[in-house]
Amino acid sequence: MIYPNNFEQKIGFASIRQMLSDLCISQMGLEKAEEMTFSSDKTRIVKSLEQTEEFIRLLQTGVPFPVRDFHDLREAFHQIQIEGTCLSVEDLFALKPSLNVLDAILRYGHSESADASPRLKSLIEDIFIERSIFTEVNRLVDDKGEIPDNASTELLEIRQSIRRKQGGIEKRIRQIMGDAKTAGWVDPKSEITIRDGRLVIPVKAGDKRAIRGFIHDESATGQTVYIEPAEIFDTSNEIKKLEYAERREIHRILMAFTRLLRPYLSELRKAWNLLGELDFPCWKRS
Fold it and tell me: Which CATH number fits domain 7-146+253-284: 3.40.30.10, 3.40.50.1000, 1.10.510.10, 1.10.1420.10?
């Protein structure tokens, strides 16, 4: 029993809790800081002190312990428990560094080095994450934080088609641009630009009928119109269709990965609780 009931307010503990909260790197750690209260339970106090001492020793001995670069994905885990739902691309990108941090923590917890930190080891040893999850998330997200071409055979084929067609369009529109400059329809200093996601040529308004195509925009003065040549219009539409196919394939990839995750959501929630425990700064900062 803590006496009086407003003991924390009397000693100004709120400011200390705020200092600890400011050191957290995740929402999970913040919640742990906010939940922290005084205790008269000797067992609990001794456990907390021993955990703190172990973390201090880790910091002092320079043992690498990766409490960094992870994200609060608990809401995403909650949402994907329903069949037919899937992670967003953003959640997938956030999951990779988080799982890699978790993997390093689990590896440490099962190493000989962890024997010197029994309290820390006890936190980690009950956590299990299916290895295929680590493997798959690293396959689906590259070092640039993007879904790579080889995430699926279909995605590779789609993106190769897009690049081929884009290359053809760029080559042809440069040829048209060069001819238009020679003919005097385009200012010699002008460059190909983009309007509405399409490559266009800035043509003098008086010569807009010289190039057969589609006007996407005009300059503020009305002296220049931006034309997409008709002969590349169909190819541009083909690229747009391929981009839709790319989105559908990425969605299929996300659905498949989410089906892999779904049976292990309870374990993932436990693991994210562990990340919050390790983020709690009164343990990990010296």
Answer: 1.10.1420.10
